[in-house]
Amino acid sequence: MGFSFLPRLAEIQSAARLDDAGLGLVLALGTLGGLIAGPFAAVFVQRFGATPTSAAMVFVGLPAFILIGYANSGAMLAAALMGYLAADAVMDAAMNTRALQVQADYRRSIINSFHGWWSLATIAGSALGALSAIVGLSLPLFLAGIAAASCLAAAWAWWWDPRMTARAEHGQRQQRLRPETVRLMLKGGLAALAVFIILAVTVEDVPIHWGAIYLTDLGQSAVVIGLAYVLLTSMQTLGRFFGDRLVDRHGQARVIQVSMLIVAVAMSLALMQGSAIAFVLAAGISGLGVATLFPAAMHAAANFPGVNPAIGIAFVSWFSRVGFVLAPLAVGLLADGVGIRFGVAVMVIAALGLVVVAGCVDARRGDQ
Q1: In whole angstroms, what is the distance from residue 37 CA to residue 76 CA?
Q2: Given a cut of 70, is residue 332 above it in pLDDT?
Q3: Looking at residue 163, which CATH number applies to its domain?
Q4: Contact, 176 vs 66, CB < 8 A?
Q5: Which of 134, 184, 211, 305 is the most buried (most CB within 10 A)?
Q6: Range(s) of the domain holding residue 134
Q7: Dist. CA 280–CA 229, nearest whole Å
């Protein structure tokens, strides 16, 4: 759902009467919903199961999602994003928990492919968002249609998967988040993994959320903006479907280090060149490069020794929401102060940082 309105973010920004710094602040405030709700994901997953939790969160987040289309002020937009992203944070942790339960049965990496199917949905969402802008469909009506389709998909998943989820979770030890649990995660490398996921969010989030703003600043049309989103998400999807083979052959850390070096070089050259076509191409390369970042972090989060996977995933997912707060603030402030080009360059710094900390995603319990 979330990607469907991103190609129209410049339109949302205009309707809410926000400058670049104001938009960055609103995006950061909206992410606070995920920071508040994220820790509850482990409680819900352990109590109700991963699939019922993720499906229920679709319904919980729908009113706020629809409200985004009616936002005519920064406060209203921040409130809508906060509600939607609170549900999204819990849903995200639940979906990753379920995916890693399935991966454990396969005993090889398939988490990237799961995220590839998620990326296919982002392609559909971004393409529909761009198409809706091109044909002049009102944003509220468009978001209502996306919400209705999401309801049907969530209801089907809730009906189909509960018994499989129950089998996957049978025998898993229930665990509360206590000081000892946190100490176990810190001993297992939580601090480095937190830095990793914050940097990963920055690299992935900046071209997604700020690509429309950057291209609009270059005077580009909705067609070009839509093309950038579709190319980025298409390349990310391609990278995820091939990512498991690369990870099994070369290891998580090596794949990430090479891909982040390529992303840093490509985006640096595009920003220095300053044309729309250079940015669109760099966005495509970025989509391919970030493909394995989130799957790697979730895999590592599920492998803290002595910690229930649902807690590890919820904890690291929470740190990803910290990244979603920091990235738009940094980009928005730089864009307002010295220009959007310098704001987008934040992702280059983050990509280089990932080269340094990539080793933290190596499995702790062995490949599942």
Answers
A1: 19
A2: yes
A3: 1.20.1250.20
A4: no
A5: 211
A6: 2-169+177-361
A7: 8
State the pLDDT at residue 168.
46
The 10s digit of each residue's pLDDT in 83-129 is 999 999 899 888 888 888 788 777 777 888 888 888 888 778 878 88
**Contact status, residue 349 vs residue 334, Cβ threshold 8 Å:** no
Report yes or no on 125 lying in a domain: yes
| 277 domain residue, yes or no | yes
Over range 138-152, report the average pLDDT: 90
> What is the spatial distance between Cα 350 and Cα 289, in angstroms, rounded to a whole number?
13
Q: How many CA atoms lie within 13 A of 237 on its CB side?
A: 15
Residue 257 domain-assigned?
A: yes
State the helix-helix crossing angle for 50-67 and 162-169, rounded to 10 degrees: 130
For residue 367, being part of any structural domain is answered with no
Count of residues making up the chain: 368
Q: For 137-275, where are the alpha helices, taking DSSP H only?
A: 139-160, 162-169, 179-187, 190-217, 222-250, 252-273
- pTM > 0.85: no
Looking at residue 357, the DSSP 8-state letter turns out to be: H
Q: Which residues contact 137 (CB under 8 A, 6 or more apart)?
A: none
Inter-residue contact 51 to 98 (CB < 8 Å): yes
∠ CA 26-28-29, rounded to 5°: 65
